[in-house]
Specification:
Umud Fragment, subunit A
Length: 208
C-alpha cells in the first residue's frame, strides 16, 4: 500500500500564500492604488463651505482632474489640467498639512479684491443679484453665506505664477487663503465632483 508523505508545514504555508493570500493582497493593492490616483472621497469636517457643503457631507473627488500621480506619492506623472476659478478643490493646507476643501476663486495673474465677503476679479465684480448672495465664476455659480460677515478683506492682491487663491463660501467662518496664503496649483489633490451623501437626506448626487 502506497503512503503519501505530507509536505512540511513551511511548504504548505507557502503554497497557500501563493494560491489564496497573494491574489487577495494584489487586488487590495490595485484598489488602493486606484483610489489614490483615480477617484477618492472626502468627508467635510466643518461649515466653512456652507451653504454649498454641510458638515459631514461625503464628497466624490476626481483625482485625475489635474493630472496622474505616482500611487501613494505626490509626484505627478502626467499633467491633465490646472484648477480653474469656481472649482471646489481638495488640497493640503500650507499652514499645517491638514487636508481641506475650498473654492478656487483666483488663479495665476488674477488681480483680486475682496470687500465684505464679495469678490472682484480683474476689476469685474462677481456679485449676482437675488435674494441669496451668489457669485458668478463663468462656468460655475457659488452660493455664499454672509451671515457672519465677510471675514478679512483682500485689497489689490495679484496671484503669483503657479499659485491659487482659495476661499470658503462661508466667508465669515472660513480658515482659507486669507490666513495661510496661496496654494501651489500643482499640489492640489483633486477636484470635488459631487456630494453623494448628506446627513438627513441620505445618498444622492448633487454636483458641485
Amino acid at each position: 500500500m502506497k503512503t503519501t508523505t505530507r509536505p512540511p508545514l513551511g511548504q504548505r504555508t507557502l503554497r497557500w500564500l501563493k494560491k489564496e493570500a497573494l491574489p487577495v493582497l494584489a487586488t487590495l493593492g490595485l484598489l488602493a492604488a486606484a483610489r489614490d490616483t483615480l477617484a477618492n472621497h472626502y468627508q467635510v469636517p466643518s461649515g466653512s463651505m456652507q451653504p454649498t457643503l454641510q458638515p459631514g457631507d461625503r464628497v466624490v473627488v476626481d483625482m485625475r482632474a489635474y493630472g496622474f500621480r505616482l500611487p501613494f506619492t505626490s509626484r505627478t506623472l502626467l499633467t491633465a489640467g490646472t484648477p480653474q476659478r469656481g472649482e471646489v478643490a481638495v488640497f493640503d493646507s500650507p499652514a499645517d498639512g491638514t487636508r481641506l476643501i475650498k473654492r478656487v476663486v483666483a488663479v495665476a495673474g488674477d488681480h483680486v479684491d475682496l470687500r465684505g465677503g464679495r469678490l472682484s476679479i480683474n476689476g469685474r465684480p462677481l456679485r449676482l443679484d437675488g435674494r441669496t448672495p451668489r457669485e458668478d465664476f463663468g462656468t460655475r455659480t457659488a452660493a455664499l453665506d454672509l451671515d457672519l460677515g465677510g471675514g478679512p478683506d483682500v485689497r489689490g492682491v495679484v496671484v503669483p505664477a503657479g499659485k491659487l487663491l482659495v476661499l470658503g463660501d462661508h466667508r465669515g467662518n472660513s480658515f482659507d487663503g486669507r490666513f495661510f496664503g496661496f496654494v501651489d496649483a500643482d499640489k492640489v489633490y483633486g477636484r470635488a465632483v459631487a456630494v453623494y451623501y448628506r446627513s438627513g437626506d441620505g445618498f444622492g448626487w448633487q454636483r458641485l
